[in-house]
Design goal:
Helix content is about 30%, strand content about 25%. The chain is α+β, with helices and mostly antiparallel strands and about 475 residues long. The protein is globular.
């Protein structure tokens, strides 16, 4: 058994018992466009009654799916259960902008050794996702399209130059586009300059996550619309009915309760994204920040003609607060901007589809003014985790309880790698990549609220003011 990694927070102990209780249950009431444009999902299977498994994974997002896949492969004779509070693909991992990134960095060139370390993780996760798409023939609009960065004002100009310097320092391919070239490619003269770099994929993230979850190994069972409510450590001597009893050195095991059932297990993996803090794990070590997007219906021919070459593209703002734009394979326009601190439950759908969607419309019309009659069909938000030191939440919280969180930039590829590596860590499978992951600093403790809230509000205001021409 590997030693516990410090720094994830404390769980409450009462005699030989550990209790973790969720004080917020994930529940999105907005309209996740990536999910709703898919064919109707099969009915969910919720847990009712008692179930048993060697390992229980909480969360069917990118980390949980990757961990469950790998555990299923490494331990084919063990039962693994995955609990998802909503539907696989509907939560945060199905709500991002759909960039499967091999690299992303804002600001002055970072320490290259740290970037190269992260790139190894991102490349590994990207390779895993690409392999699953090919192996299972997932219909998720996967495209090796690369990405553009655009600059419209002084802040964007500064940042796009810094991104180019970082790419050059890492020996990565990139090319400049002037305003005319950007117009030919995207149909707008909003951007003074553009920077293109290959290496990443574009995808419908909800389709990707739903598809992966539908192809779990045979020894992995998914229960959806089944949030975990509490985690109790069972008394010593309990064997849970498993042949030969428990073998992992965690006497007693765990009982995890859900609204209509319970799971007895030897090990628990917390892979529920920013909501793990609501179990008391890693609380105060990351900032949950929500980002918001809107998506149109498929564009008609005359509307699509406004987009230059009318070919699919993905564009990230040069500035940290700049808008993200995508023209998808199925001719839809996605606009993502606006960020806010969401320490509790997701934002109500009415606010997302109201004032926030208006910001997306303003951004669309600033770039393509002739799109005035094109409405957004869907508007939604997703919550990401940011640490203060590019640190990680990875490893054993205490014997039998493990945690993995994807955070900061490139969450999908990073999370895929981290989830798989956590399974290796649990099963004692060593690799150079796992050594890299274990060599990362843990997420440091952040200032307490309300001081943290004040600092976040100040930084958001500063970034938005600097990037007002990129919004």
């Amino acid at each position: 058994m590997r030693e516990t990694r410090p720094g994830f927070g404390r769980v409450s102990r009462q005699q030989d018992k550990t209790m973790l209780r969720a004080d917020v249950i994930p529940k999105h009431t907005d309209s996740n466009g990536w999910w709703h444009i898919l064919p109707k999902a099969p009915p969910s299977r919720a847990l009712e009654g008692a179930a048993q498994a060697r390992t229980l994974v909480i969360g069917a997002g990118v980390c949980g799916i990757a961990a469950a896949f790998r555990l299923g492969e490494l331990t084919p004779d063990d039962e693994i259960i995955v609990l998802e509070a909503e539907r696989a693909g509907f939560g945060a991992s199905g709500r991002n902008a759909g960039f499967m990134l091999n690299l992303h960095s804002h600001g002055p060139p970072k320490e290259l050794n740290i970037l190269r370390r992260n790139m190894n993780l991102w490349a590994s996760g990207l390779s895993d996702l690409r392999r699953r798409v090919q192996e299972f023939q997932l219909d998720c609009q996967w495209s090796e399209a690369g990405r553009f960065y655009g600059s419209a004002g002084p802040d964007g100009e500064k940042h796009i130059d810094e991104i180019a310097k970082t790419l050059d320092a890492l020996g990565l391919e990139r090319s400049w586009l002037d305003r005319d070239a950007m117009e030919r490619r995207t149909g707008t003269r909003f951007y003074n300059r553009g920077l293109y770099t290959p290496g990443n994929a574009l995808v419908n993230p909800a389709a990707l996550m739903r598809g992966c979850a539908a192809h779990f190994p045979i020894n992995v069972t998914l229960f959806e619309e089944t949030p975990a409510l509490t985690i109790d450590r069972k008394p010593r001597g309990f064997t849970g009915g498993f042949p030969g009893g428990f073998t992992g050195g965690f006497p007693g095991g765990f009982l995890v309760k859900t609204p209509k059932g319970e799971v007895s297990c030897e090990r628990v993996v917390l892979a529920n994204g920013v909501f793990m803090g609501h179990f008391g794990v890693a609380k105060g070590r990351y900032v949950p920040m929500a980002t918001y997007a809107s998506l149109t219906a498929p564009l008609a021919d005359e509307q699509l003609a406004q987009f230059g070459s009318a070919e699919e593209f993905g564009l990230l703002g040069g500035s940290e607060y700049g808008a993200t734009i995508r023209l998808t394979q199925d001719r839809r326009l996605m606009v993502r901007n606006y960020f806010n601190h969401m320490p509790n439950a997701p934002m109500p759908g009415a606010r997302v589809s109201g004032p926030i969607a208006k910001l997306h419309r303003q951004a669309m019309l600033a770039r393509w003014p002739d799109m005035v009659d094109v409405p957004f069909e869907h508007s939604w938000g997703g919550i990401m985790a940011f640490t203060g030191n590019d640190g990680c939440v990875f490893g054993a919280v205490e014997p039998g309880i493990f945690a993995v969180l994807t955070n900061d930039v490139s969450p999908m590829t990073r999370g895929t790698a981290s989830g798989r590596l956590l399974a290796d860590y649990m099963e004692g499978v060593d690799s150079k990549l796992l050594d890299l992951q274990l060599g990362m600093a843990g997420a440091r403790r952040l200032p307490p609220r309300p001081f943290l809230d004040i600092g976040i509000a100040y930084r958001r205001a500063k970034l938005r003011w600097a990037a007002k021409q990129e919004f």
